[in-house]
Amino acid sequence: MKSEPTPKRLDLEGGATLLLEEDHSLPLVSMTLALKSGSAHDPVGKEGASRIALRMLRRGAGGMTAKQIEDAIDRLGGEVGTDASPSGATVGAQVIVRNLDNFVDLLATMLGSPAFPSDEFGRLQRETVAEILESRDSDRALAQRAFRRSLFAGHLYGRSTTGTTATVPRLTEDDARAAYGLHVRRGNLVIGLSGDVNESDAKRVAARLLDAIPAGQGLPDPIVEPEPKKGRRLVFVDKPERTQTQVLIGTLGTSAFDPDHVPLGVANAVFGGTFTSRLMREIRSKRGWSYGASARLATDRHRQSFSMWTFPSSADVAPCLRLEIELLEAFVDKGITPRELSFVKSYLTRSRAFDVDTSSKRLHQALDVVSLDLPADYHSSYVAKVKSTTLEAANLAVKTRIHPADLVVVVVGTAESTLEGVRGAIDALEEHTVVPFDAE
Amino acid sequence: MPALDPHGAIAEKLSAGAPAGQKVTYRGAHPFSDTKLHRYELSNGLTILLLRDQSAPVAAYHTWFNVGSRHEKTGKTGLAHLFEHLMFNETESFKAGEFDKKLEESGAESNAATWVDWTFYHEALPKDRLPLAVRLESERMARLVLREPQVKSEKEVVANERRYRVDDDVEGASNELLYKTAFTRHPYHWPTIGWMEDIQGFTPEDCETFYRTYYAPNNAVVVVVGDFQEPKLLGLMQKAYGPIPRSVIPPDEALPEPFQSESDLREITLKKPTPTEKLIVGYHGPALGDQDHVPLTVLNELLFGGRASRLYRALVLDTETCIETRGWVSTFRDGGLYEMYGTARAGKTTGDILAILDREIARVTADVVSEDELARAKARLELSLLQSLETMNGKAEQIGFFETVLGEPSAAFRRLEGYRRSTASDLRKAARRYLTGQGRTLVRVLPENGA
């Protein structure tokens, strides 16, 4: 197999890093400014500060009003979005190449001289609270939130990056300014460029952005390794009139630094990572209980979650849940078979082509490595590690990392009609709590 | 004698010695961005569109069938979509489950989608695995096995999909009501996923009849984008698809939707366990192929596209009436709807949203928009087209969609030229034609507890 193209890496003045992946097939340039710190730095009671600070970048900067900034982005054929997580944050942008320099000037103004005008801050605060309320319409989002809160209770991963209806209204412009000052600094920055841009363009773009961004070192990571919690716990999110439920079952999963990280991922792909996985076959194909059924291992700087996701009808949720736990126990006890291993290795190595088929995907892999401090060969050694995974290594990884005795089960549904069945479907259930869907 | 076009020569060579019904004909090239895609046709009517792209060692293989929910009958709604699910089951050569297994083993990803006018199946494969896609897709075009257990299990999966997307989803439920109310005669009246009672009533015979009628080479287009050798790929396709017989495709029975007169204001209220009120407005709009579709799309971008658009500004930023708003001019073969959405904030009502919406509609029908706003809307549409072409799958989808709905595989670029040429006057004309002088349909969603 030909080696995969990898982005060029340049270390810039002030501790910043530039990653470049050229692709001249479309007149489009994508830019990602990745900050190596995120909402885990939000002070207690000020959850949401980092995210709101980033979102304020487009709401007034360098003498431009929010309206002028939005008009300019559109006029240049550009797009700007921001995102934050406990471990990092990004400003992502894309622009038609003919307007690249003007667009970079605009980005430099937004990143380097945000004004945090108080009328806009108040508006964004109210908008954020309204968004939190509106997200109650999404049963899946309710399930994810409850799962994260319960699995990582007392840990920084358990907090909300968006903030809550209690914390967001209490934030001030000074909190946003402080969060901006903390995160947006040269030593904390990785600049990624992909698309119709060459090395000299990229250096010019990076220099222009760095010139605008305050100097400063990167930040120490405040997140510690999460501790496992013992026993099986059910969180039932009660919402009226559900004909269907959302079910998440999980526990702690993997860290990118575990020696068995790839073998665990290989085994998980057999269990719930493909369209023909065990979960899909048993739950969707054989029984028609849920439109989707999957298992996922999240990756971050520290150990993250393992979770199984299904959405059976209210009538099927109890047997579906029981079956999922049985399948999980069998997966841990007996592991995967040689035939399954051979099949999934073929899938994972061949489908790798789709992880790297565009310049922006290649860039994002490199960005992950640098911004989340993953092992340098995290992506480049992936195929070789999959190929060399033995049955013993895969099955041992599952036994070592996944503990079916310690599960968080989250069900979003109507308690009146389904809670009893759900409780009965979980053997050795130690505790259960029922929370109204509009509690947060 | 002029030299034969190399693509014509490929077709001629493949046809020499082929059985009478299995010839390949080259039908010419279509410009596509800065390159060309080539059109071939087999004797049985199968259209093949090939776009060579060597930017990555992968390929996209799309099969578009000219069948969607518009081809269904009352009492049998949802059949096209259920069928899409069944297409992943057993065939004469492959046991149930083998189709997906073979693809996954090859590192391929596959899926499918159904809507009002079409159904399409797509695979993304490493480039050396293209022959597998040819084999599997040709097999299921002609040799699908439909048995009771699979039909029963897929009906259950689809019923669950309906609960997920419609019954327990506020937006899905309200969108379904909008079309149900706005269309009274045309089949856009019913949802593509089908009514629940229809889904539960299908028999294997219903599926078999549907399959034999619509899954035929003369009702399909295969689009391949990727790094392939054209003669080799075409040869494989000729061999695999050539023997499949044509079908007699029934005429389109869709009745035109009667005009919704100015006095015909339809309004439905839906109560749901949702935190805030929602409003959906639907005006009957142009078909995708109508000339007006292009300026109305530009107008929609100006009204709803992004944070600098008029309605986002008015509803979300300035008055803080909504948390979200958006608009869409449906891209259907027949006239669909110009849909407008607003999600109210706590304490605001659908009436508040409607008042602002009406004020902005009145503005665009009375006055021409500014050149700066027009330029911004055009730049956004150009960016969005470029973004859709970033992957081979994206390109294949553009080609397959426009070929199936308009018979014009590179229409995306003609439309882009149309956006560029649209004037402020064109936008106002389109606004006057569709947003005044006819009735409209409103769906109001209210929180159940009256909060």
Please describe what this structure looks like:
The complex is a heterodimer of chains A (440) and B (451). With 440 residues, chain A is an alpha+beta fold. Chain A folds into two domains: 8-212, Metalloenzyme, LuxS/M16 peptidase-like (Cytochrome Bc1 Complex, Chain A, domain 1), CATH 3.30.830.10; 232-436, Cytochrome Bc1 Complex, Chain A, domain 1. Chain A has helices at residues 49-55, 66-75, 100-112, 118-134, 139-151, 173-183, 199-212, 261-272, 278-285, 317-334, 338-351, 359-371, 382-387, 391-401, 415-425; strands spanning 8-11, 17-22, 28-35, 78-84, 89-96, 189-195, 232-238, 246-252, 293-297, 305-310, 408-413, 429-436. In chain A, helix 10 (317-334) runs parallel beside helix 15 (415-425). The termini of chain A are far apart. The model of chain A has no long low-confidence stretch (mean pLDDT 95). By secondary structure, chain B is an alpha+beta fold. Chain B has two domains: 6-241, Cytochrome Bc1 Complex, Chain A, domain 1, CATH 3.30.830; 266-447, Cytochrome Bc1 Complex, Chain A, domain 1. Chain B has 16 helices and twelve strands. Chain B has a seven-stranded mixed beta sheet with strand order 1-2-3-7-4-6-5, with helices on both faces. In chain B, strands 8-12-9-11-10 form a five-stranded mixed beta sheet, sandwiched between helices. In chain B, a hairpin with a 2-residue loop joins strand 1 and strand 2. In chain B, helix 2 (79-86) crosses helix 5, helix 11 packs antiparallel against helix 12 (350-366) and helix 12 (350-366) packs across helix 16 (424-435). Chain B is globular. The model of chain B has no long low-confidence stretch (mean pLDDT 95). Chains A and B meet through helix 2, strand 5, helix 4, helix 9 and helix 11 of A and helix 3, helix 5, helix 11 and helix 13 of B.
Summarize the structure.
The complex is a heterodimer of chains A (440) and B (451). Chain A has 440 residues and is α+β, with helices and mostly antiparallel strands. Chain A is built from 15 helices and 12 strands.
